[in-house]
Design brief:
This protein is of the alpha/beta class and 373 residues long. The protein has helices spanning 14-17, 152-165, 190-193, 203-207, 214-223, 240-259, 280-293, 315-324, 326-348, and strands at residues 8-13, 22-27, 30-37, 40-45, 59-61, 64-66, 73-75, 92-93, 95-98, 101-105, 134-139, 173-178, 226-232, 268-275, 303-307. The protein folds into two domains: 8-105, Rieske [2Fe-2S] iron-sulphur domain (Rieske Iron-sulfur Protein, 3-layer Sandwich), CATH 2.102.10; 121-349, Rossmann fold (3-Layer(aba) Sandwich). The strands form four sheets. A five-stranded parallel sheet has the order 12-11-13-14-15, with helices on both faces. Helix 2 (152-165) packs across helix 9 (326-348).
Length: 373
């Protein structure tokens, strides 16, 4: 096709369009990322190769347009990927300026190319392998590295896990993750940009091999039958580390919302909550709500908790109370036993995939009102 025969689309005045380094324009039915750099225009597809992010709403970083969703990069004129990943490219369009107007070719001059990527290990379909009940403990007490101190919630968790591991005929497999030992990035708000931008596995985990949140995902989604979360009370709430972890776990819940995909089946959650100040019920209620929205179940009396009250500003006495409390330690043991029994019932009496339907406040399609006749 000659330049004369090619269909050109007028996208606007060059003076106005040159004011923005990157912007989204329509070229026929296509979204295009129009760029301006060094006195020249460029045009590449506005749809990112990763999960379809809007490249035209990104920004320029050197020679590359950076996708606003997950920061994938493509050359502003050729559409090629970063050095070493050039073949992972988006289509490009020819651009010209005539009579003060910017014209973009409707036809793509290069094709989209995708480098083959092996699926992330976490992306496999969850499947429970035969074996004993598996209990995962998540301790969310924050500590300074190399400066160990006593944690009341972690003490009860460790004691209960040891008892579950040594439980004779009913012995369980156990794992303990001290979340403070993991190096992982905070949630970067991809969901706030678009529902589809929050992926499973989390895009951070896919992009950053150093991100250790994968250990929590592996344990919660693929390994555990029972998940026991232990947290101190901090200023009337759970620990800051708990919230950092749980924000990253929101990608699991978002699969329920956006894809009707159930990552957690037959999972039981129990809680250990302790602190020097009151507010046990509010902390527990928030934790229970989050895990309920993941589709988890709870044993009868799903938590063990302790607080000496609002006016007890003597943590040394609070710690000593928990250390010495036979009642609390036995209560934590009994909590894990109830949880394991609940997990056995759920595994043995699996109601099947059809039993899992949208429920609760997320029991509807997004942006769709469905009315009874």
């Amino acid at each position: 096709m000659t330049d004369h025969d090619e269909a050109w689309i007028d996208v606007g005045a060059s003076a106005e369009l040159a004011a923005k380094p990157v912007q989204e324009v329509r070229v026929g039915s296509r979204k295009v990322a129009l760029t301006f750099r060094g006195g020249e225009f460029g045009a590449i597809s506005g749809v990112c190769n990763h999960v379809g992010g809007p490249l035209g709403r990104g920004h320029l970083e050197g020679d590359f347009v950076v996708c606003p969703w997950h920061y994938y990069k493509f050359h502003w004129q050729s559409g090629a990927g970063e050095p070493g990943y050039e073949a992972d490219r988006v289509p490009s369009h020819a651009v010209k300026v005539e009579n003060g107007r910017v014209l973009v070719s409707e036809a793509q001059r290069t094709k989209r190319g995708r480098l083959p990527h092996d699926p992330h290990p976490l992306a496999r379909e969850p499947k429970r392998e035969p074996g004993p009940i598996r209990i995962l403990g998540l301790s969310t007490t924050t500590m300074t590295a190399g400066q160990a101190r006593y944690s009341t919630s972690e003490d009860l968790l460790v004691h209960a896990l040891a008892n579950a591991r040594e439980g004779g005929d009913g012995a369980c497999d156990t794992r303990l993750i001290r979340v403070r030992d993991l190096a992982f990035r905070a949630c970067e708000g991809f969901y706030s940009k678009s529902a589809r931008a929050c992926t499973w596995p989390c895009s951070i985990t896919q992009m950053d091999s150093r991100d250790q949140m994968d250990q929590v995902y592996e344990g919660v989604v693929h390994w555990a039958d029972v998940i026991v979360v232990a947290t101190p009370i901090r200023w009337g709430g759970a620990s800051s580390l708990y919230y950092k972890m749980i924000e990253r776990m929101n990608c699991i819940q978002n699969q329920e919302t956006t894809a009707n995909r159930h990552l957690l089946r037959n999972k039981v959650v129990a809680l250990i909550v302790t602190g020097g100040q009151d507010n046990v019920q509010a902390v527990v209620g928030q934790l229970l709500t989050f895990f309920a929205e993941l589709g988890c179940q709870f044993p009868q009396f799903p938590f063990v908790a302790h607080s000496r009250g609002w006016s007890a500003e003597d943590m040394e006495n609070n710690e000593q109370y928990v250390r010495d409390s036979k009642f609390l330690h036995e209560g934590a043991v009994a909590l894990l036993r109830r949880s394991a029994d609940m997990a056995r019932v759920m595994i043995e009496r699996d109601l099947g995939q059809g039993a899992l339907v949208r429920g609760g406040r997320k029991g509807h399609q997004l942006d769709t009102e469905r009315r009874l006749p």
